[in-house]
C-alpha cells in the first residue's frame, strides 16, 4: 500500500473541492481549500520526497475561460517532476501524447471513455493505439445505486451502465496500467472512506489500484490498509495539512515507499 499525492487544479489554482459540487457552468465548485502556491511547488515537494505515481487533475472543462491557465499550471508541475506524476482531465487519444511529452508518466482517462452514462470501448482502444496501455490509468469513479457500485459520468452526476466489481476490473485491466477509483459519495467530505468499496478492491489481484475519497484521519489509513489487504494504494486531499486539513503530510509521506 502506497500513498499517492495529488495536485487538483481549478480555475488556475491548486484547490481541494467537494467532488460532486463541480459544475462547468460558471466554473463553480464548493471549495475546501485554495492554495497561494502554484502546482509546481507541490510537484517539486513530491519529487524531493520521492513520492511517485501521484496525480495532477485539471478540473476545468476545455471550453472554460480558465482552462489555459489550469493547463499551464499542470504543465509546470509536470516539468518540475518529469516521469513522477500522472495527468488527467480532458484526456483524449488526440492530446494524450502531449501530456506524456510534457513529463507525465501516465494519462488518467474518464470522460473520453465514460460519458452520457455509456462506455465507449472504441475510444479506449483508440487511446491504447495512441500511447500504449502502459501509459493509461482508467478512472472508475463510482457511486452506489440499487446495492451495486456503478461508474458515474458527466461530473459524477449520471450513473453509467458499467458496474465497478472484480469482473469489470479484470476486463478493463487489459487496456490500462492502473486504476484510479474515487468513492464519489465520500469525495472531498472528510467523512471517512467507503470501506465496502475498499474491501471489494482489496479482494482483486491485478494491476495497481488507487482509492480516493473521504480519508479523514490516520486511523482511516490504518483501516484502509486492513480492509484493502495492503494492496490498495491511496490518496488524501482535503484532510491533508498541506491543503488545510489535520492529517500530517510528514507522517503520510512515509507510506510513499509502500512499506
UniProtKB/TrEMBL annotation:
InterPro entries: Aldolase_TIM, His6/HISN3, His_biosynth, Isoase_HisA-like, RibuloseP-bd_barrel. The keyword DNA damage does not apply. The keyword Isomerase applies. Pfam families: His_biosynth. Gene3D superfamilies: Aldolase class I. NCBIfam families: hisA_euk. The gene is hisA. GO terms for molecular function: isomerase activity. CDD domains: HisA_HisF (cd04723). Coiled coil: none annotated. The lineage of its organism: Bacteria, Bacillati, Bacillota, Clostridia, Eubacteriales. It comes from Ruminococcus turbiniformis. It comes from the Bacteria. Pathway: Amino-acid biosynthesis. This is Phosphoribosylformimino-5-aminoimidazole carboxamide ribotide isomerase. SUPFAM superfamilies: Ribulose-phoshate binding barrel (SSF51366). Keywords: Amino-acid biosynthesis, Histidine biosynthesis, Isomerase. Belongs to the HisA/HisF family.
